Amino acid sequence: MHTHPLANWYRSHFETQLHGRYITLDAIFPLLQKLPSHNNVQQIGTSVLHRPIHSLTIGNGEKKILMWSQMHGNESTTTKAVFDLLHFLNDDSEASRAILANCTLCVIPMLNPDGAQAYTRVNANEIDLNRDAQALSQPESVVLKAVFDEFQPDYCFNLHGQRTIFSAGNHDKSAIVSFLTPSEDEQRSVTPNRQKSMEIIVRMNEMLQKLIPNHVGRYDDGFNLNCVGDTFQSLGIPTVLFEAGHFPGDYQREKTRELIFYALIEAIQYISSTEITGAYTDAYFQIPENKKQHYDIILKNVQTEQNEVLDLGIMYKEVLKNGKIHFEPYIEDKKILKKSFAHKIIDFQDTIAQKYIFQSFSLEDQVIEYLRKFNKIDN
Predict the structure, then answer these.
(1) Whole-model pTM over 0.90
(2) What is the mean pLDDT of residues 96-115?
(3) 3-state DSSP helix/strand/coil percent for the chain, to nearest 5?
(4) Is residue 45 part of a domain?
(5) Which of 123, 128, 377, 379 is the most buried (most CB within 10 A)?
(6) Band of residue 371 on the pLDDT scale cut at 50, 70, 90
(7) What is the Cα Rg of the chain in Å?
(8) pLDDT of 15-32, one tens digit each?
């Protein structure tokens, strides 16, 4: 496993004011205000609950890249990476100068501030903005489409986060980062636009394989024109979906954030320095597809008072309490487990846990209490 060339720079330059999973407009607004004037920060609209939505434009090159984050309010990892990226672009280095000379970036760091505040996927009208690309029924959707029409990007980066259930293929390898070039028709045709975004993804994957080998996945490309990526791809703009997933033990998604930063830098530098033709599609399809194969925890050989022995598949639910995200365990599957792997396995036969005997009539409450006491991951 390698270290990224920017690792030392990153450790001393990442945005320290953003940490954890709960990232709101209140957290990013002061950072937007502090950006240098050449970032051209402006309010481009408001949410359902009248919270401002901002964009910033930086660079003056011919190649135009539009990116947006927190379309789903509880997918905040890429927002942190975006601000790390802005630190890089505003650092006066040869690399940043080259990017800004060749590219113009338009960034919407938080498209769904109401969802971010409530820590929900949907907006305040309980609409999934990533299923509203055709109807444009929500003010946030209208804002994004208006920016798209006015900016006329050459490339789009659709920045998301994904759950801990995903593996990179049918292997015990979490999908730490996943990518997709969305389809633009029901046949999922490999069009020139898709080929260009595939080439960018292949480049990012080559870099990430050195850092997190076998932990990169390829997201499902089922066609749905209501999705923003599919719509923008169908309008002729090569679009890349980024999915920030689970690095082992990293429930706050700080290591994943760093990897997304490296992926963004790789993609932008590649666009900046390369005439992209879409020549590497075979390598794209060699990236393993995401599979839903992981529990957060498997408890093996749990014994009840009735001498029943169970395997339990545990997942965490992310719950907002008092301005902090808490990871609340629940039993998803008992005995016959539907998934193959877990981020942590506790075997009650060969660990200190073996002294615990559970009453079967209140099994769930007892298991949850055990996990809260002995397996806390909130920080």
Answers:
(1) yes
(2) 98
(3) 35, 25, 40
(4) yes
(5) 123
(6) confident
(7) 22
(8) 999 999 999 999 999 999
Which residue has tokens 């209208």? 142
Q: Judge whether residue 350 has pLDDT over 80.
A: no
Cα angle 121, 129, 175 (rounded to 5 degrees) comes to 55
Last residue of a domain, one of 261, 292, 323: 292
Domain of residue 118: give its range.
7-292
Question: 243 an active-site residue?
Answer: yes
Give residue for tokens 């100068």. 97
- pLDDT tens column, 238-262: 999 999 999 999 999 999 999 999 9
* Rounded CA separation 115/43 (Å): 18
CA-to-CA distance for 70 and 120, rounded, in angstroms?
10
Helix (H, G, I), strand (E, B) or coil at 317: strand
Given 243, 258, 266, 289, which residue is catalytic? 243
Can you give the pLDDT at residue 362? 82
- The answer to whether the beta carbons of residues 205 and 109 sit under 8 Å apart is no
Q: Which pair of tokens denotes residue 190? A: 């490999």
The number of domains in the chain is 2
Same domain, 157 and 77: yes
* Nearest to 176, CA basis, from 168, 188, 187, 185: 168
Distances (CA, A) of 137 to 10, 105, 226, 235, 373: 40, 27, 11, 19, 45
- State both tokens at 97: 């100068």
